[in-house]
Amino acid sequence: MKAIHLIIPVVFIVTTACADFLDKQPLVDSSVDTYYSNDNEANDAIIGCYSISQNETFQLAPFMLIGDDCSDDCDIGNSNSEAYSWLGANAQTLQKFDILATNSQSSGLWTQGFRGVTWTTHAIERITDNPAISESKRDQFVGEAHFLRAFYYFFLTRQYGRLPIIDHVLEYEEYYMARATTEATWEFIESDLKKAAGLLPEKSEYAAADLGRATRGAAKSLLGKVYIYQGKFQEAYDILSEVIGSSQYDLEPVYEDVFTLEHENGIESIYEIQHSTSGTGWADDNEGSILSFYEHDADPEDTEKWHNGWSMHCPTEDLVNCFEEGDPRLNATVIFSGEFFDGRIHKNVASSTGYQPKKWYIPYDQRSQIDQSDCPKNIIFIRYADVLLYMAEAANEIGRTGEALTYLEQVRGRARSNSSLPGALPQITETNKDLLRDHIWQERRVELACEGQRFWDLVRQGRAGTVMRAYSQKYNSIKGENFVDGRNEIFPIPDTQVTISNGNLEQNPGY
């Protein structure tokens, strides 16, 4: 558990990122004891806390390899993909749910996540009640730190289950603490988000240069998500009602606009991981979005090197077939083989399914021309449609069927208004609770397809094993064939962390 006790909140602050607030110079040779002596230093420390979530090793598994590629929505590429030779074996092991505690792709989040927990915890202790920092900024910075600590804990808890609770800067003898209960871990996340919501400004209260920072709406939305994951539907309904009632967010009129660079941090955005081209190195060394590069097709005949990618996030036939006729979200989600898009015909030669994803695609003229890993594409974590569908689910579960249908219709209505097919996407009128739940879950699948949510949705809905074993049989696929209920909903803690904890850190069952 060395990652938990790395008390290095300042030295590793990053240099640039998509939003202006992340455009800062790094600080070096700064003592923890003498730092946080003014607003600028506190701000730079908070920027460092944001920066961890930009890293490939933080994002790759939760958003892509597990979030989608371990579900029925997406698959890794074929042998034409340059990444297949070094990433394919690990990815396929994840997909088969035949996972070892040494799997580097499932292990990467542990170090990155607890790095984020360490930095945010240090920021909270150093900034709270610090008279050297102005009161208005102090509240904002502490609120951001609480939000970000909850954000990192959410990713860790979702993937690894119950965790050690790091609520203060640790003394040496505390480094190897045992894991708390699942309930206590979630309660800690809830507590951080409630504190954040009480301290952070609304989105509209930030200056333009600070667009992309955590907001009150982001804290409440993530709290609602946390409640949904625990089946606390009344609590989710109550807090998400506040997000909707804040008038800070709305749906983009055109669905596909949500995923363009021009609409980043727009009206539908609640929280995005910020990215921009910085020209400072490969992958974690820069501020670009490498996940977009992982998505692009790897065509060996394409002589334009920087037009290519690694094709590791390919929509499945099962996903394509689940869209209703005339649903415009399909063409906004999938690049079809032979489709003319972005000035060329796409062959999708590195796709194992024949399809490539479109949502994280970056047009050629907006990409870095020297480094595929350094591209300006934010990763959307929560958007307003997500909140509306969570509200529909919560309302349905607590017996407010009429409200559930209203929230569901807002999402479907936007898609319907974008369709060119008369009669497409008819309004849902089902009032049976169980049947309406199925409609809401289906709507989540198509609305949020390829956004890193599907596997985690299946797990929290309690049907990951059923769905994935059925997928394996239907498509004669390795994916899902070994899924064991009660084991594979979470992933193994890295074996190195279990070893150095001298047995205090208990491995997850079945690993």
How would you sum up this structure, described in words?
The structure is a single chain. This protein has 511 residues and is mostly helical. The chain contains 17 helices and 8 strands. The chain has helices at residues 39-51, 56-65, 84-96, 104-127, 135-160, 182-199, 216-230, 233-245, 290-295, 317-322, 329-333, 384-397, 401-418, 433-447, 454-460, 464-474, 495-500, and strands at 74-75, 269-273, 314-315, 334-336, 340-341, 344-345, 355-357, 379-383. The strands form 4 sheets. Strands 1-3 form a two-stranded antiparallel sheet. It has a two-stranded antiparallel ribbon with strand order 2-8. A hairpin with a 2-residue loop joins strand 5 and strand 6 (344-345). Helix 8 (233-245) crosses helix 12 (384-397) and helix 12 runs antiparallel to helix 14 (433-447). It is globular. Residues 1-18 and 21-30 have low confidence and may be disordered.
Q: What is the element layout, followed by pairings?
A:
Layout: H1 39-51, H2 56-65, E1 74-75, H3 84-96, H4 104-127, H5 135-160, H6 182-199, H7 216-230, H8 233-245, E2 269-273, H9 290-295, E3 314-315, H10 317-322, H11 329-333, E4 334-336, E5 340-341, E6 344-345, E7 355-357, E8 379-383, H12 384-397, H13 401-418, H14 433-447, H15 454-460, H16 464-474, H17 495-500
Antiparallel strand pairs: 1-3, 2-8, 4-7, 5-6
Helix pairs in contact: 1-4, 1-5, 2-4, 4-5, 5-6, 6-7, 7-8, 8-12, 12-13, 12-14, 13-14
